[in-house]
Fold this sequence. Notes:
The chain has seven helices and twelve strands. It is of the alpha+beta class.
Amino acid sequence: MPQHRKVAIAAFAVLGSALVLTGCGGQTATSPANTATPSPSASGANNTAGTENNTSSNQSNATTNGTSNSSQSPANNSSSGGSNNDSSNGTGTVKVSGNFPSIVTQAMTSLGTNGFPGADAPTFVPQPTSGGNPSYDAHETVPTTNGPQFLAGYHVSLTAGGQTYASYEIDHFANTQTAIQNVNTFASALKGGKPASGGSGIVLPNNQSAALSSSGGSTVIHWTNGSWTCQVVNENTSVPPTPIADKLVTQLAASSLPKPDGTGRVIVDNANPAGTDLTVTLIWSANGNVYQVQTTSSASSPITSALQMASSLQPYPG
């Protein structure tokens, strides 16, 4: 082939390659311009980033609230009812819905359709004092024949080292009035929950008037605090539970409890004279629901923790 024809063919080949490269470069330039325009996919990316930020924030707040960061880790939130894998983002960090601790998120997710619309959950859970990894048990509650006839409900218990350190239960009734009427029914079924009455007058911290009475071999201090009735019970002893009552009064003054539709109950049951076997329960009604929050001596600062749990309840995104 003549030399000048070889040169011409080579020139055309180089020109063709340049045109192809120019065309590809034009498509690439267009794509970033479109991406810069707000779109649903871009919004989704922003939401994901927000979730990650909330997770970090919640872990930081957990330390402030008296819960350790370890309570937010997947290792410490193993479920007795199932795997944690569904809650993991694949990086070893358990995602948190809003401000809810990861163990609460996992428990609520495990309820599935057994939870009900408008359900609530605590954004604060206490730190357990016993060893072992915290786990949860979450299940639907079903009314008994002779018990309160609620429509739907659920119960979540948190355990560590074989000991329950906190729990919460919410039962939904047909209307507000029915829920109000069943608060004392639920409370009376608890140890130390039978309503107290009568007794001799005493004065607690903050000039709080109270009464000291006895019932069934136990000693009770009881009083009214706004929309709440409070009682502290020393089981099977005539010794008044004054130190525990004093502490409850002080903690109530520093707390902001929910406002019940009717009258709420705060019950502190002490099973031994040393005051080291406490069960603290708050029961109240609101919006047609009856709420129960409970801590035990297996939780760090059980009285303070119970008040904080009750105050932290928020609607859980279903």
